[in-house]
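[Meeting: bench + compute handoff]

Bench side (C.D.) handed over the final construct sequence. Compute side (W.E.) agreed to return the predicted structure before the next meeting so the bench team could plan truncations. Sequence as handed over:
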Amino acid sequence: MTDTLVLFVPTHDTAWRWLRIAGDGVTGRGEGMPVLAADGEEHLVAVVPADAVTLHWAELPDRSLAQAVAAARLLAADASATPIGEMHVAVGREDALVERPIAVVAVTQMRDWLSVLADYCIDPDVLLPAPLLLPRPETGYVRADIGGAGVVRGPTSGFADEAGLTDLITGGVRPEILPRDQMEAAIIAAAHAPVLNLRQGPFAKVVATAIDWALIRRLAWLAGAVLAMTLLITCVQLLTYSLAADDLERRADVLARSGLARGEAVNDADRQLSARLERLRGGGLGFSRTAATVFAAMRATPGTEIRTLSFDSNGAMRVTVGVQNEGQILDLQRRIEASGLGATPMGQFQSVGGRVTGDIMVKPR
């Protein structure tokens, strides 16, 4: 547990005093300015004089500290003759009580305290009014000497003990004097869990942001792990795609072998299938399509007939036709060409027995 240094800010007629707390016990005490911990890890609580702070208790909004402070400023403005712009208002919480403590102090006084502490290189974590070190009594009042000055605390009040003023506030009720051991226990409890901290709003302590290298290293390891997992997933996907492609290629090769002639050695299934298809189909558009085109043209030309038909590997078909007159040769040629093929007469057509015969070469354009 971090040690706590409780430093009592002096008034004009008192000196610096301090307590050092470790756990639930006081490990040191003294007057004057203490020696601060070399590692700077000490929790610093500065206790300010009671006569410089006015304390109130009131029911405040509990949604947020900002709302509570805004409501407290309105209450302080009604209870003080000093302009609210010159006052610093802080709100605390005491156990589970509905009424919350409100501290009102001059802005200039806050600046003076922090400036004096800064002169000794002290930037306190908590600035606590002296009356709030005392335990809250259920009834009546309690009194103790804090930092060389008397302080009185009631259920909803806290103030400096001054002759005449104390009797007026307490209505003649004599405050109970806290024994030394109870006072030290109350200081320890208040230092560990202060009821109110004046360092709020514009006077809040600025916490320096330190680079957490351990966190950065962990984030770097996590980023590296995420990158490695991403690369691993990509590699697994590539391997899966590669295996699937190999399987498809193997299946295609098996199917290709079934389409080749039995006993034919397979070196390049795709090329060999294409070659066999070309042999079966023929060049150009193939025998079937070329022949179908020629037969369609013959049917559309009355009085024509096919006498011979030959098809070569280049996709050309030589057709010997017989027609009634030479005009039908031209009609036949046009119909074949209209189907997208070229039709060229081969040599002279001869007239035999009242029929005109000759050859037409049909091939792709």
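W.E. noted at the follow-up: The chain has a mean pLDDT of 86. C.D. will use this when planning the next construct.
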